[in-house]
Design a protein that fits this description.
Order of helices and strands: EEEHEHEHEHEHEHEHHEHHH
Distance between the termini: 48 Å
Bound molecules: adenosine-2'-5'-diphosphate
Radius of gyration: 18 Å
Shape: globular
Strand order of the largest sheet: 3-4-5-6-7-8-9-10
Strand content: 5-15%
Number of strands: 10
Length: 291
């Protein structure tokens, strides 16, 4: 098989990305490409590069403004659609039952896809008090087969418990900020108790200096790996699904090459010891009061 420019395409099942089974029976890759703040053309190029390197999951969102680029990148790669796990998210302005159904149609159209593998509520916005209705729309989309798996992002336990109580359906994932400066220990334990997988946004700490921390550098040097690779390995060994963002081909490829080595307990502790409680993006617990 060949992509549109004649490059050989890896076989349909990527050996590089193992999968984890979610609570809804869906198999999700253990690592995916993030495209936050990438323009449409940048996203298209990054997605194509990633898929040709062996990635099989891409995480976007309506508010990123680059769903059309993600769709183009998938098409340009030549990788079969059914082999790619596409995640997108409904934005705050489109919360509510009917608005979410319309927003999904618009996202699918921009992506150029008839179904999406995973659809998430981007933020709970509890002051709007619409997230249970938004969730009802996601449940319908899944029942109709337009979405294979549904979940949430930036949700606290109280919001997830309410969804479960009112709908009887638990989210498959909660996508949260998580990196060596913010471990989310309490939330990860809660997820485990409900069978919810943890996806990490900004798993590298969004260039805020965690990759150059001496502990990370020491672990990287011991393995002959890059700081980003040992941090991604730290996520995988905690059972977290990291979504590193990059538009740089060399980094995109390097960030996937994390399945052939293992950190020991001391090295895991060294990376955990970098710090905790440092947010590089909006802190949901602060936003809850104003949203
Ligand atoms: P770029 O997209 O220019 O390659 P996060 O996923 O934690 O939010 O981090 C994203 C940021 O980290 C982006 O600025 C991205 O830059 C950069 N980045 C991604 N991969 C690597 C890497 N392997 N080494 C260093 N920086 C990286």
């Amino acid at each position: 098989m060949e992509s549109t420019d004649g490059t050989a395409v890896p076989t349909s099942v990527s050996p590089a990305v193992e999968r984890v089974e979610l609570n809804d029976g869906t198999a999700m890759p253990r690592l995916g490409l993030g495209v936050f703040q990438a323009g449409v053309d940048e996203a298209a190029a990054a997605v194509r590069t990633a898929l040709l390197a062996g990635y099989r999951m891409v995480d976007t969102a309506a508010v990123y403004g680059n769903e059309a680029g993600v769709g183009r990148g998938i098409a340009d790669s030549g990788v079969p659609r059914e082999d790619v796990f596409v995640v997108t998210k409904v934005w705050n302005d489109d919360q509510g039952y009917d608005a979410t159904l319309r927003a999904f149609d618009a996202s699918a159209a921009r992506l150029g896809l008839d179904h999406v593998d995973q659809y998430l509520i981007h933020w709970p916005r509890p002051r709007l008090d619409l997230y249970p209705e938004t969730w009802r729309a996601l449940c319908r989309l899944r029942a109709e087969g337009r979405v294979r798996s549904i979940g949430v992002s930036n949700f606290a336990p109280e919001h997830i418990d309410r969804l479960i109580a009112e709908s009887g359906t638990a989210p498959a994932v909660n996508q949260i900020e998580l990196h060596p400066g913010l471990h989310q220990g309490g939330l990860r334990a809660y997820h485990a108790s409900r069978g919810i997988a943890t996806q990490a946004w900004s798993p590298l700490g969004r260039g805020q200096g965690f990759l150059s921390h001496r502990a990370v550098a020491a672990v990287a040097e011991a393995h002959g790996r890059t700081p980003a690779q040992v941090v991604l390995r730290w996520h995988l060994q905690m059972g977290v699904v990291p979504l590193p963002k990059s538009v740089t081909p060399e980094r995109i490829r390097g960030n996937l090459d994390v399945f052939g080595f293992e950190l020991d307990a001391t090295e895991m502790d060294l990376i955990t010891g970098v710090g905790d409680g440092y947010h590089v993006g909006p802190d949901p617990s602060l936003l809850f009061d104003i949203s």
